Amino acid sequence: MGKRDNRVAYLNPIAAARARGPAPNHGTTIQDYLSRPRPSWEEVKEQLEKKKKGSKALADFEDRMNKRWKKELEKNREKVLGGGEKKEKDKEKEKKEKKKEKKKSSRHSSSSSSSLSNSDSSSSSSSDSEDDDEKKKKKKRKRSSARKASDDSDTESETDSRESSKKKKKLDGEKDKVLKTHFMTLKK
Q1: In whole angstroms, what is the distance from residue 25 CA to residue 23 CA?
Q2: Which of 72, 93, 117, 134 gets the highest tally of CB atoms within 10 A of its CB?
Q3: What is the pLDDT, as a whole number, of residue 84?
Q4: Hey, CA dihedral for 42, 48, 53, 54, is it positive or negative?
């Protein structure tokens, strides 16, 4: 029996590639990229100018918005200039009244608080301002009296502490005397 033939055919890869010939073109090559058509400097300038100007749609939109804002400004100017002083005063009064109502409702429970009608509140706005002034004065009085009371209590507490320290010293002295006499009687 003879030996088996274990030989394998060897192909040089470079030689095989040369034998196949040039590879087919699949897509663009570097050469194509380098030789592509380019715009001239004048065309580039035109494109840049167009970009700076922006799109027509955006410009139209901005114009529309500007017109709307101008209309709103004119309306507001007419409101302010034409009898706006009276309206502003009314608005300020309403704001004050609302603030007062909020304060009152926060002080009282929501079930007991009642909302005032516009006619009642407009007639009582002057009396409300007077009531607010009186309340402020009362608060100041309470604060000042509270300060005086705290000052008085501080002075009283200082005198009390002095007196109590004197009493303690007296009691300690008396206790010492009692203990000494007690020990003396025990020793005898």
Answers
A1: 7
A2: 93
A3: 55
A4: positive
CB of 128 within 8 A of CB of 100?
A: yes
Taking residues 165-177, report their average pLDDT.
86
User: Which residues, 6 or more positions from 115, have their beta carbon under 8 angstroms from its beta carbon?
Assistant: 101
Q: Nearest-CA neighbor of 97 among 69, 82, 117?
A: 117
DSSP H or E segment with residue 64: helix 56-81
Tokens found for residue 176: 């010492």
Q: Which residues contact 47 (CB under 8 A, 6 or more apart)?
A: 39
Q: What is the pLDDT of residue 149?
A: 67
Given a cut of 70, whether residue 68 has pLDDT beyond it is yes
Distance, in Å, from the CA atom of 6 to the CA atom of 90, rounded to the nearest integer, reads 112
